Amino acid sequence: MSADFLGYLAGMITTFSGLPQLLTSYRRRNLSGLDLRFLVLFLVGISLWTIYGILIDSKPIIIFNSITLLIWIPILGLKIREQRAERG
Amino acid sequence: MSADFLGYLAGMITTFSGLPQLLTSYRRRNLSGLDLRFLVLFLVGISLWTIYGILIDSKPIIIFNSITLLIWIPILGLKIREQRAERG
Questions:
Q1: How many domains is chain B built from?
Q2: What is the topology of this protein in the membrane according to its UniProt annotation (chains A, B) (predicted)?
Q3: CATH number of the domain within which B28 lies
């Protein structure tokens, strides 16, 4: 197994690991266990990774991190909506 | 801002974004909103990133992903414990 293949595999798995979280969060609307600061920091970090990928012109870094953003931004949205509803 | 600096910043923020999640999960023992499949897949992916870092001898990739493992393995442990307790 080449290092590159392992890198793509790692990227795929970490990127799509967010999908079951998005589906569960969307279906059950229970994000109480998810920490808002984690979600915000994680998305800031992933955004910086995407910009970094653009700067060094690395397609895998751009693609994997853009998909991660697409998966986790809705999760953040659901979390914010839950917290607003709790505050009434 | 150099690309390298941005990469380290992105790595730091995404790595340590897990800390507030670990603290919240540990204190409140409420991981109901966290999806077990996400946690398992995420840790598999991060483990592969760490091995990838070793293969290409990239210290930042090794360090950041090892710290991420140290943060998220206890969260997985808390989640498994919670699910076992629910099953009684």
A1: 1
A2: Multi-pass membrane protein
A3: 1.20.1280.290
Q: What is the pLDDT of residues A22-60, one digit of tens each?
A: 999 999 999 999 999 999 999 999 999 999 999 999 998
CB B31 within 8 A of CB B25: yes
CA distances from A3 to A8, B57, B69 (A): 9, 10, 20
CB spacing of B21 vs A35 below 8 angstroms: yes
Of B6, B41, B48, the CB nearest to A51: B6
3-state secondary structure of A33: coil
Chain B residue closest in CA terms to A7: B52
- State the ipTM, two decimals: 0.90
Question: pLDDT confidence of B14, banded at 50, 70, 90?
Answer: very high
Q: Which residues of A touch B46 (CB under 8 A)?
A: 10, 14
Count CB atoms within 10 A of the CB of residue A5. Answer: 10
Domain assignment of residue B10, given as a range = 3-87
Residue type at position A3: A
| Sequence-ordered list of residues with C-beta below 8 angstroms from that of A40, at least 6 positions apart, any chain | A76
Contact between B34 and A33 under an 8 Å Cβ cutoff? The reply is yes
> With contacts defined as CB-CB under 8 Å, which chain A residues touch B53?
none
